[in-house]
Every structure is written in C-alpha cells, then in structure tokens.
Amino acid sequence: METLDQIYIKVLYNGKNITADVSKSLMSLGYTDHMSEADTLDITLEDSECKWQSEWYPEKGAKITAQIGIAGGEVLDCGIFEIDEIELYGSPDAVNIRCIAAGFKQGQKRTLKSHVHEKKTLSQIVHTIAADLGLKVIGNVSQVKVERLVQQKKGNLTTLKKLASRYGYTFNVRDQNLIFIKNEELEGKQAVAYFDKTDLISFSLTDRTFGTYSSASIRFHNPEAGSIIEYKTSEGGLPNSDDVLHLEQSVDSIEQAQQITKSALREANKMQQSGNIALPGSVVLISGNIISLHRLGRLSGDYLIKSASHTLSSTSGWLVDAEIYKVGYKEELEKQTERNTPKKNKKDSSQ
C-alpha cells in the first residue's frame, strides 16, 4: 500500500497551483465519485500556524481543480469543484475545505424554472435544458415522444434527474458536459480490471430476493384520448422471483409505456447482488466502470461501480471504498436454471 509520499497530488485554486502549500499541511484528501449525484471533494489541512484560518483562508465559491494518482504513474482527474463550506476544528487546529462539483454548484443550475415542454422527444427536452445550462450532452438520448412535460418551479437538474430515472438513464454533470447515458450501455461494457479476493482489503456482498420482480406492468387510462394503454414485460425480470411490479404512472403512448416499464423493472432488480468493497487506490476505480471479482463463489463476476470514495491520508495512504452491483446476473441465473433442468431424451419426448 502506497504512503502519502508515493502518491501524486495536484491542486489548483482559481487556476493557481497551490500543491506545495497543500502538501505541507495535508492530513487527508477525500474524493467521492457518484454516478448520478454531485461529486464531492474534501481537503483536510493541519493548521498549527493558523495560516489556513487567516491569510490563506479560502473563498467560498472559488474553483478547485484536483488530480490524484501514483507518483510516476497514471493520474485520476477528479474534475472542477467549487468551495461550498469551510470548517475549522480542533484541538489541534485543522481546517476542512468541502467542495462540490462545479456543474452542480453553480447558482444558475439551482435556479427554479417554470417551463412547459409540448410535443417534443425526450432527446429534444434534454438538449433544450442542456442548452439553457450551457452544457454539451454526452450520450444517445431516446426519440420517444413526450406529449407534455410541465417543469413547474423545479431546478433544471431536478428535472433531468427525474427524466433519467423514469427512462432508465444515468445522469450527471462533469465540468461542461451533461452526461445522459442509457444504463444498459454502461452495464454492457467490458471489465477494466480484475481483482482476486486477496486483492480486497474488505468486502460485504449481499444476494437478496426481497424487492425483486419477474415482470412489470403498467395500465393507464388516458381521459383525453378516451383510451387505455397497457403493457407488460419480463425483459430485465428475474426467473427466481414470482412478484410482478405494478406501475401507476401516466403515459402518452405504448412506446413510452414500454421504455418506462422496462426501465423500472431493470432498476428494481439491479441491486439483486450488490455491496461494498475496499481496495488500495487505483485510477480505474471510478463510477460507471465495470470490474471483475474472482474467487467469491457464486458472487464472483462483473460488477458496476455505483460510487467510489477515494481517501488519501498520512496514516493509510490511498484507499478506495466502492459501492457496486452485479451486472449480467439474469443471464447467469438463466444458464444455471437451464443446467439444473433435466433434459428429456428422445424416447421420453415421443411419448
């Protein structure tokens, strides 16, 4: 495990390199990388000389750019943050600088908006909101038609997060990019790294059945059209569950019902096998990446990182705690069921 001396750290404050000053006082640096929430950065500094609480006192709203890695090796670009709060505590004196990803923090993105989107596609709505925020959309967004979406006194990011959840996307803001990627696309990627059980500092994985479903259905009476829209699917359902997920949501079309129902079923089942692992620091341990875990029995396999908390400290070096869930579980279960099902021979099948 690396010591703090072996770890590469770079910190910019409003574009000025303050790495040397930070390194002299650094007690710990914590970077948490989320799939669908604001990334955070915490820098804790010892302040026995009282510089950070006086002449070096950071300004709220100042831009912080951070990078971490192994000296002489690969570097993880944590992104651009804005200082949200400063905490002074002791004794001995120390200062913690709490930062939030700049894309989420900017006041423009927190402004409550009232807007009506009519007869647009999901893609058009997402791109319209992104343009209002001055962001570039990363990802292929569905062309499903949305008859009417009322954005009444809601922040742009709140609206985008609800749309992502409803239609099965991962949503985030990184620097000047609006990430809007289909969950299946992320879950279908190849593993970027392989870890044996002995590589893990600790792990806690759970295999559950409660809250999982074999299928999902939706039924909505459209009073304006005077019609009923019904749809049921087992795509994304688990064969070891007998429960049906019944959705009570308004939909405009059968196409919309299909996307919403499939998304809800996949979302409900994706945490079937999930948990947390702790490992030595690595630049590949970031949200959205797939890692492969081995020698964990039935729980071995590929897992998607939902969030990763990187901690660099003078006492423990660089550690990562990751929240993960297994991908491809349904396919594994179907193969297992097929193997355990007795096959009829030709004589039996002809009787």
What is shown here, in short?
The protein has 351 residues and is an alpha+beta fold. Helix content is 22%, strand content 45%.
Oligomeric composition of the shown chains: single chain
Q: State the major sheet.
A: 13 strands, mixed
N to C succession of SSEs: EEHEEEEEHHEHEEHEEHEEEEEHEEEEHH
Instruction: Write down the overall geometry.
Output: globular
What descriptors fit this protein?
351 residues, alpha+beta, Phage tail proteins - horseshoe like beta roll fold, Phage tail protein beta-alpha-beta fold, Elongation Factor Tu (Ef-tu), domain 3, 4 domains, 13-stranded mixed sheet, three-stranded mixed sheet, 9 helices, 45% strand, globular
Could you please describe the fold and organization of this structure?
- The protein has 351 residues and is an alpha+beta fold.
- It has four domains: 100 residues, Roll (Phage tail proteins - horseshoe like beta roll fold), CATH 2.30.300; 79 residues, 3-Layer(bab) Sandwich (Phage tail protein beta-alpha-beta fold); 85 residues, Beta Barrel (Elongation Factor Tu (Ef-tu), domain 3), CATH 2.40.30; 54 residues, no CATH class.
- It is built from nine helices and 21 strands.
- The strands form four sheets. Strands 1, 2, 3, 4, 5, 6, 7, 13, 14, 18, 19, 20 and 21 form a 13-stranded mixed sheet that branches.
- β6 and β7 form a beta hairpin.
- The longest helix has 16 residues.
- It is globular.
- The C terminus is likely disordered.
